[in-house]
Amino acid sequence: MVRLTLDLVARSANQKNRKEENITQYLKKITHLNFSNRNIDIIDDLSLCKNLSVLYLYDNNISQIDNLSFATNLTHLYLQNNCISCIENLKALRKLEKLYLGGNHIAVVECLEGLGELRELHVESQRLPLGEKLLFDPRTLQALANSLSILNISNNNIDEIKDLETLENLTQLIAVDNQLLHVKDLELLLNRLPKLWKMDLNGNPVCLKPKYRDRLIVISRSLASLDGKEIKEIERQFLMNWKASKEAKKNMKKKSVIWDPSTPPNKSESTHQRIPGYYGAPQHD
Q1: Neighbour tally for 226: CB within 10 Å
Q2: Whether the Cβ atoms of residue 150 and residue 176 lie closer than 8 Å to each other
Q3: Distance between CA atoms of 266 and 271, rounded to whole angstroms?
C-alpha cells in the first residue's frame, strides 16, 4: 500500500528548487504536485500544502477521495484512471475549475454542490457492471447550472440526456460511444442550451438516423461543430431555406384543399358529414 504523505512529497522535492528553505516552508509554498502513476492507494494528510492549486493523481489505485478539504485554493484536480466509486468530500474545494474523473467506477454524478467555479467535468469511460449506465443527480446538475461549460460523458452506456438541459451555460458536450437513439430528444435539448457550440455524439445509434445532422443544424443557431465536423454558415443557411420552402409548400397545399360543390361527394362520406351546416344536412336545434 502506498500512501501520499507529506514525507513522500518532501522526499520527492528537488533540493535545488528549495534553495535555503526548510521543508515546512517549501510545502507551504508549493502550488503544483504531480504523483501520477505512482501506485498510490490513499491520500494522506497534506494540509501543510495550503497553496496547492493543481494536483495530478491520475493512473493510481485510489479508491476514496479523502483528505482534500484543506486545498481551498485547488483549481485543477486530476483523478482519472483510479478505483473511485463515489464522488465525495469535494465541497470545500470552492475554487475548483477542472475535475477529471474518467476511467473510474462512478455510477452517479453527485455531491458537487458548492463547486460554484467548476467549468469542466470529465467523467468519461466509467467501468460499470454490464448493463448499467452513468446517472446524474438533479441537485448536482442544478448546482452546476451557472458555471459548467464543458462536460465529457463519453462511453458510459447513456441512452437519455434530457436532464442536461439544466446546464444552460454549457458550451461543449462530448458524449461519444453511448446509446443515444432519438433525434427529437436532441432537438429538445439543443433548444434549452443556447450557448452550446460544440457537440460530439460519434458512435451513438442516433447518428445513423435520416437527416440527423441536418435537423440538429437547423434547430441550433449556436452549434458550430457537430461530431468533429465544422458547421459552416452557408450549410446552415441552405438547410434553413430548404426547411422554410418545404413548410411553405405544405401550407399552400393545405390552403388549396377547399371543397368544391361540383365535386361528387365520397361514397363513404355524406355531404353533411364533410361540410357542417351545408344546406343539404339535417338541422338540429
Answers
A1: 20
A2: no
A3: 8
- What is the sign of the dihedral through the CA atoms of 111, 113, 114 and 119? positive
- Please give the angle made by the CA atoms of 92, 98 and 100, to the nearest 5 degrees: 100
> Rounded to an integer, what distance in angstroms lies between the CA atom of residue 125 and that of residue 142?
23
CB 201 within 8 A of CB 176: yes
Q: What share of the chain is helix, strand, coil (3-state, %, to 5)?
A: 30, 15, 60
CA-based nearest residue to 197, from 231, 158, 239 = 231
Q: pLDDT of 132-159, one tens digit each?
A: 999 999 999 999 999 999 999 999 999 9
What is the per-residue pLDDT across 245-255, written as a single tens digit (0 to 9) for each? Answer: 666 666 777 76
Distance of alpha carbon 122 from alpha carbon 76, whole angstroms: 12
Phi and psi at 259, nearest 5°, equal -65, 135
Query: Can you tell me which residue has the cell 458524449?
Result: 175
CB 157 within 8 Å of CB 132: yes
Tell me the whole-structure pTM to 2 decimals. Answer: 0.83
